[in-house]
Write a structure and sequence with these properties.
By secondary structure, this protein is α+β, with helices and mostly antiparallel strands. The chain has a single domain (4-158), classed as Beta-Lactamase (2-Layer Sandwich). The protein has five helices and six strands. The protein has helices spanning 13-30, 41-49, 71-76, 81-84, 98-111; strands spanning 54-58, 66-69, 113-122, 128-140, 146-153, 155-158. Helix 1 packs across helix 2. The radius of gyration is 14 Å and the shape is globular. The termini are far apart. 32% of the residues are buried. InterPro entries: MEKHLA. It holds the Pfam family MEKHLA. Residues 17-157 form the MEKHLA domain. This is MEKHLA domain-containing protein.
Length: 159
């Protein structure tokens, strides 16, 4: 398995488990699979990491920290795995876009799923980009306890 850009963090047992919850939660809220679910949890985590669309997530801390980003997310946010998973989620949007981002996350938290989101984000190096058609969902553990939020999208434009 590839470790380019310091990205092997996706293969740890805790991240493989997180990927399972992320995928199970997406199926719960969206009524469909995000990726093909064949194979072991490790195979599915690898497939998610290499997916041709962005997947990113954070936990439920007071000021949530990003805890997952697939290869497309790392590329888009111009980040290594180690940098991404220590970044407060709010830092993915410029201050002027924070209120809009907070409202979207609250809607996704209260409804479980929010689709067709669009907004402006910023990479760790300061490059701005607009995302479109994003879906945001609540991540639940095996006991259906809320443990985070995730987003996925395949459309973005550098600004």
């Amino acid at each position: 398995m590839d470790d380019t850009a310091g990205s092997s963090g996706w293969a740890t047992p805790s991240t493989v488990q997180w990927c399972r919850w992320l995928l199970d939660s997406y199926r719960h809220w969206a009524g469909e699979e995000l990726i093909e679910r064949a194979g072991t949890p490790e195979v599915q985590a690898h497939r998610l990491f290499d997916a041709p669309f962005v997947v990113v997530s954070h936990g439920i801390e007071e000021d949530p920290i990003l805890n997952y980003g697939n290869r497309r997310a790392l590329d888009l946010w111009e980040s290594t795995w180690e940098q991404l998973v220590t970044t407060p989620s709010r830092m993915t949007a410029e201050p002027v876009h924070q209120d809009e981002r907070r409202r979207m996350l609250e809607t996704a938290r209260s409804c479980g799923f929010f689709s067709d989101y669009r907004g402006v984000r910023i990479s760790l190096t300061g490059r701005r980009f607009r995302i479109e058609g994003a879906c945001v969902w609540t991540v639940m553990d095996a006991r259906a306890v809320r443990v985070g939020q995730a987003a996925s999208f395949s459309q973005w434009t550098r600004l």
